[in-house]
Structures are given as C-alpha cells and as structure tokens.
Amino acid sequence: MNGTDAGIFDHYHKSLAAYVGSLVDSPPAAADIVQETWARAIPSLRAGTVENPRAFLYRVARNLVNDRARDRRKWMPWLAGEEAGAVVADDTPSPERHALAQDRLRLVLELVEDLPPRCREIFALRKFDGLDQAEIAARFGITRGAVEKQLRHALLVLAARLGEIDEAG
Questions:
Q1: I need a labelling partner for 21 at 20 to 30 A (CA). Which of 65, 74, 92, 139 fits?
Q2: With contact defined as beta carbons under 8 Å apart, do 101 and 93 qualify?
Q3: Closest Cα partner for 124 from 157, 102, 151, 142?
C-alpha cells in the first residue's frame, strides 16, 4: 500500500469491518470478506475512478457476502449436519501415539538443553513462555534481530539433530 492507500484504509477499515460483521455470522468469515474487499477495491481506488470510496467498498463487500451465501447454499447438501458430529471417529491419539509423542518431546527437551546457554534461554522464553521477540530483546538488552538470529540458530540445530536421529532410528 502506498500513502494514499493507507489513508483510505485507515479512514474506512473500521466501519467496513463493522458493516461486514453485521452481515455475516462468523467473525473469521467476516475478516476474510473484509480482506478480499480491500484486495478487489484497491486497484479501482488507486486508479481514481471511484467517486465515493465508502459506497464502493460497501458494494464490493455486499457482493462478496452474497457470493459467500450462494456458495454455502450450493455446498449445503454435501456438508455434514451437526448431528453427524456424533458419529465422527474420536481423534484422541492412541496410547502408542501418545507414548511416541512423549518420547519425542523428551528428546526435543534434551536437545534444547544442549543449546548454548543464551540461545537456550531465548528459545525457551519464545517457545515455552510465549514472549515475543521485542520482549526478549528488552529483557536481554539486545536488538530484535539478535533475538531472531538466536531463534533461527536454535531451530536449525534442533531440526538438524532431529533429522540425524530420525535417519539413524
């Protein structure tokens, strides 16, 4: 997006999202429709051929909502009803798969312990504690790029070691 696109986006996005949200029963579907609206509208908005951007955006969004409803009606006969969920197989892992997953987790944790101390700490803060790169960077007094470099290193080492173990096993 260029500067003009960003201005139009900032000005109309919230009201467009609210409008689509009022027409669609699913927040994820509404978000998809809003995104598709922008993707379809931006070329016309950039070309300067639109006199009323708000009305244009709403019309594009409404057409996408109608398309979605038409598609749902078309596929409805092939979609399972809610009552079909009762006969779907249980996707709980078997005891064997559970044991294999536990072994794999233990192996990964052992491999994490073999990482260099700072790399291990950064990896643990990101993957186990859920901190984002900016928080980790602030905690260590380093740049976000340095955090990303440590994470990349950890992932490459772990992937390589896991690959070696899989090939040997």
A1: 74
A2: yes
A3: 151
Indicate the DSSP class of residue 48: T
pTM above 0.70, yes or no: no
Q: Exposed (0-12), middle (13-18) or buried (19+): which is 8, by Cβ within 10 Å?
A: buried
**Burial of 62: CB neighbours in 10 Å, binned 0-12, 13-18, 19+:** middle
Give residue-wise pLDDT tens across range 2-53.
556 677 888 888 999 999 999 988 899 999 999 999 999 888 888 888 899 9
User: What are the DSSP calls for 103-145, one per residue?
Assistant: HHHHHHHHHHHTS-HHHHHHHHHHHTS---HHHHHHHHT--HH
